[in-house]
Amino acid sequence: GGVNPQACVAALEKVAESTGLELKIAMVDGDNVLPKKSHYAKQGVKEMFTGADMPPMFVSMNAYLGAPGIAVALDSDADIVVTGRVVDSAVVLGAMVHEFGWAWNDYDKLAQGSLAGHIIECGAHCTGGNFTDWELVKDDFADMGFPIVEIKDDSSFFVTKPKDTGGLVSEATVAEQLVYEIGDPNAYLLPDVTCDFTQVRLKQDGANIVQVSGALGRAPSDQYKVSATWRDGFKCTVTFLLAGINAKAKAQAVAEAILEKTSHMIEAKGLKAYSEKSIELLGTETTYGEQGASDQCREIVVKISVASPDKKSLVLFSKEIAQAATGMAPGITGIVGGRPTVWPKIRLFSCLVPKADLDVSVKLGEESIPVSIDSETSFVGAEATQNKTTLGENCNSYVPLIKLAWARSGDKGNHSNIGVIARSEEYLPYIREALTEDFVAEYMSHTLDPEHGKVNRWDLPGINAVNFLLENSLGGGGVASLRIDPQGKAFAQQLLQAAIPVPQALANKL
């Protein structure tokens, strides 16, 4: 996914030459569609989630390529393959297609191979990193083993890790990564295959060995997803410590005063007003919204973020922070490192373009090898299916969700997902009954856009899980967001504290 694969190849060749190594270094080319921006704008290509028109100028515009280019590079005896933008799982799938000679219409194998790539694409995420039951692996944090997938020609595979390394490979750690950053598990859309993960099964097959089976595949669409970025003004963030008596009230008053004062100054100078403002009092459970329960904290990190189309407005803001220490509430400290920096505010624009528009090739030395991409497919979407739950018991006791489930959350642009996996199949009906779309929308309402926020739920019965997609829940997402958690990484931790009704007998057992 490098932004400058040509320079990366040149740097690698220089290192290889300096060490006396003779390496074939290939580059997959064709993902950069920025030169076609005007063409797509004239065609009326819209943002795929909001329906917005293209902005006047993009900083970058890259299609998510699949595995064919990587497979062709390996078929050409490349020792190292450098790509531009590709889907993460393609790095693994390309190697499998090269090794086993899988056909590009053998969709079940492509789905299994893509699932293998998805599970290991975030390194230690499936070997105990970011794990709900982190205390099981905390003594290994300094030596976490990275994952290994061993896969056969029939696409059956297991996940493990190197011997004598830290971490844990269990059904739970693998399941958490399976649900990470996905939307509809019936139709996980990739350039080479549409995956159905709903019937995936996990089986512990020894210490730190988990067998994975059951991924199904269908034809992909005839379009590539494109990730483009554009400048949407500027942003600036300041943080400082405020400590002492009534710290929360003081912090709120100081933050509001800084914004009020600088807003007046910006107006007086005829500059453009703030387009966005954000106050987060870190240490007061500010990311929990209405679920927050900490009012007595005596140490708070005050985080103030602002955005504006006018850089001068934010430069003014940055100059007015230090005076708060001498002109506002007592206990302000930790203003170090000089004035906060004003940065361009880069926003994501996602869209779809026809695969037939792109010429994908592999550059190997002076040779350019064309890569054939099937752009005429029989893509069929999937309707979401949800299992019915009927509870005949009196659920008059409450337990936190973490007693019943593991969970992990992640981001996709301005959307976040929360995957919830039952610790036991018997717990799943209570989880499903309690965690409706409406319940999660209300519980996580502090994250959702008031106008465009929405929650969807899907089942993954194979691993006793449900997946939630929180649309427009990240304040713009990524570097465009002013929030401390612009990728929803802590959302699952919040939901795990939700109170779930269960029978008294089960509550007693837990």
How many domains? The number is 4
- Overall radius of gyration: 25 Å
Question: Which stretches are poorly predicted, pLDDT < 50 over at least 5 residues?
Answer: none
Mean pLDDT: 95
Largest sheet: 6 strands, antiparallel
Structural class estimated from helices and strands: alpha+beta
Count of individual beta strands: 23
Rough outline = globular
The termini sit apart by 45 Å
Beta-strand content bin: 25-35%
**What's the helical proportion of residues?**
10-25%
- How many DSSP H or I helices? 13
Task: Tell me about this structure.
The protein starts with a helix and ends with a helix. It has helices at residues 5-18, 37-43, 68-75, 90-100, 107-120, 171-178, 247-268, 311-319, 324-327, 428-434, 437-443, 491-495, 504-509; strands at 25-29, 60-63, 80-83, 148-151, 157-160, 188-189, 194-196, 201-204, 210-213, 216-218, 223-243, 276-282, 299-308, 332-333, 342-354, 361-364, 367-370, 397-400, 405-412, 415-422, 454-460, 465-471, 499-502. It is 24% helix and 27% strand. The chain has four domains: 1-101 and 346-376, no CATH class; 108-217, no CATH class; 233-340, Alpha-Beta Plaits, CATH 3.30.70; 397-509, no CATH class. The chain is of the alpha+beta class and 510 residues long. α4 (90-100) packs across α5. Strands 2, 11, 12, 13, 14 and 15 form a six-stranded antiparallel β-sheet that branches. It is globular and about 70 Å long. The longest helix is centred in the middle third of the chain and has 22 residues, at 247-268. The mean pLDDT is 95. It contains 13 helices and 23 strands.
